[in-house]
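Memo to structure team: turn this sequence into structure tokens by end of day. - J.P.
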Amino acid sequence: MITTDDIRAAHDRIRGHVRRTPTIPLPAETFGLDRPVSMKLEFLQVTGTFKARGAFNTLLSVPIPAAGICAASGGNHGIAAAYAAGRLGVRARIFVPEISSPAKIARIRETGAELVVGGARYADALAACEAYAAESGAHSVHAYDAWPTIAGQGTVGIEWEEDAGGLDTVLVAVGGGGLISGIARWFERRVRVVGVEPEGSRALDAALQAGAPVDVEVNSVAADSLGARNVFGRVHETAARYVDRVVLVPDAAIVEAQRRLWLGLRAAAEPGGAAALAALISGAYRPEPGERVGVLACGANVDLASLAALI
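Reply from structure team:
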């Protein structure tokens, strides 16, 4: 398992390639809640999500073969891996499933990486990516089940603690679980780290209940970013030790959180990026009186026409 020193080293390594995103205190009326929250605006990150942290840490810390890299993604990890590869002069081939949003596919194409679209779900894209890696010798950059990825995502925790010290609990959306694993490893239970998953995509919740990674069915409005069928071993190992618990939210609450992020902050959030706020809106997570809560808004790669329809 990675250490906090590994996360600190990742923070130093990627410093010149990613943004230090702001954390701001917000009064209760911002989102129509019954309490203020501290929100880290990670959707302002390069590529629009936290994924750039793990991608840069991987490419800067492992040997990259002449064949370059490949990555499987619902969209956001692919954008980040392609962007990092382009900035560092590395060849990249990105595999995404057919459910990936047109907005995310367009952003991958803009990087100049080779794009392969195929398969119904993320698991299909991952299988195609691993087959290509075995055939070509390219380094497969996993979206979450890799220590360099987890350490890179954990740098969110460093900034959050430095900029908003004194939090009791942080709410973090979970897809494959690399983000929450890195953040929870950094906090080491000094702060409660609560995962938020859609009811229709609950790979981490299922793994924690079963005591081991298991496959789940995926059917959620947030499936293109929170649609992993299995969290795999590294994430489960870390989350079982350091994540306080996981709560589940309905798709309707995720959509409402998108709406409130726009109305309250003029922030265009994708469904996965709004899921942590949905835990408070829906009551899936109910803070105790006086509890200081942080919310991670982690993704902005949304199709604007779809968002406009919600608003």
